[in-house]
Amino acid sequence: MPDISEVEVSAVDPQRLAAVLSDEQMAALQAAIGEARRVFEGRTIWNINSTAKGGGVAEMLAALLPYARGAGIDTRWLVIGGDDEFFLITKRIHNRLHGAPGDGEELDDDDRRHYEEVLAAQAGELNLQFRPGDIVILHDPQTAGLIPALVDAGYPVIWRCHVGMDTPNDDARRAWNFLLPYVRRASRCVFSRRAFAWEGLDADRIAVVAPSIDPFTPKNYEMDGESVHAILSAAGIVDDGGRRAATYTRVDGSPGRIQRRATVTEASRIGAETPLAVQVSRWDRLKDPLGVLQGFAGGVVGRCDAHLVLAGPSVDEVADDPEGAEAYREVKRAWEALAEAAQGRCHLVCLPMDDEEENAAMVNALQRRADVIVQKSLAEGFGLTVAEAMWKARPVVASRIGGIQDQVEDGVSGILLDDPRDLTEFAGAVCRLLEDPELARSMGEHARARVRSNFLGSRHLAQYVGICAELV
Ligand code: UDP
Fold this sequence. Notes:
Blueprint: E1 5-7, H1 23-40, E2 44-49, H2 56-70, E3 74-79, H3 84-97, H4 109-129, E4 135-139, H5 140-144, H6 147-152, E5 157-161, H7 170-183, E6 188-191, E7 206-208, H8 225-234, E8 247-249, E9 255-257, E10 263-265, E11 276-280, H9 289-300, E12 307-313, H10 324-336, H11 340-343, E13 346-351, H12 356-369, E14 372-375, H13 384-391, E15 396-399, H14 404-407, E16 415-417, H15 423-435, H16 437-454, H17 457-471
Parallel strand pairs: 2-3, 2-4, 4-5, 5-6, 6-7, 11-12, 11-14, 12-13, 14-15, 15-16
Antiparallel strand pairs: 1-3, 8-9, 10-13
Helix pairs in contact: 1-17, 3-4, 3-7, 8-12, 9-10, 9-15, 13-16
The structure holds uridine-5'-diphosphate.
């Protein structure tokens, strides 16, 4: 059985946020830090999930925890392991929580036995590391089965569910039924939006906390146009990087250099002036890369001169997502079947994941290079990619689902698609932004302001402090 591993978390002084927050926001953050130091003195706060890289949860922990450590709070991050079968089961649960049948297999008693077996061994290991007074924050279905053992051992356990649906269906309820025996035992259950809270849970144990992004990580820090071009060129996504070295700033402030290249499937190259629509996501059917490709080929190619980049992690590299490779193969087959004109305008990009910060810098550069950012998901917990794009003042076309609705105010800070499966609506929205740079600019500005006031780590940390403080 694979072991639990620890992800090293650096310390970042929260004072750094003063560069982007208002005085009022900064004062609230300082107050939360003061309270945290008092409440968490002598305690460790353990965050546990199932992958150190790839996907929104890893992204968020990597961005948020350094501030907690920088504020003097002993926050740590552990990653549990599992075998292929375990991650097949948890992916099945994940899809169901999003209301999708996934591989269509039932969640049966054998699955439960295996899920519990994998987690029981690890709960024992965790118990040896924790000390009385510690607080445990478990993330997502992969870790939910740890709750009873850790609660029985005396730790306050917060379970945070990052996925959900606005109107639950039978698939979602099947996943709840699988997880409820564990989740019911948690001291608090945290959902990204109120509508995601499950039936059958005590109302007073439910908390709602939206995710956040960090403006200073390699994923989001300010990059000028030349750096963007140099990074994309070194990654093999565009040509002729100019004279600027393809460097970026790592989390600890040291310089990094782009050393790896993306794997690109394309029939033409992206030029320096080519208008771009970009979707960055894991290769997952719920992100609807096929719909984006077909909507773009069918509705944008004949009308505007923009190109599409569909970018995701190099397949096989996201530990807890066994379906990525298959989903990518589907997109590649669909690209191969496109007419020649559309093929020349659509680019599939697999970004290397060997070094997460290098990968993040590539995503940052791609998002900044985009004229329009797309997130045409069929289901979405929150959609960090949307906040990332909005922070970069990019106009967004995204589905009116899940947490995306909390981020984008339709027509003001982006365009929401009422029906994510309607490819005509999708193509129309993309063209509207491509054809009206003033509208795109104004939406981008509103988007950035919206993230500043609602979706940065300061708000997020303060909410965590409040929840944890209630439990100790
Ligand atoms: N991401 C990345 N590299 C990739 C593809 C995605 O770093 O090649 C990141 C993306 O920038 C975002 C996260 O993965 O920070 C995805 O989070 P989101 O909430 O959008 O979706 P999830 O993957 O959690 O469903």
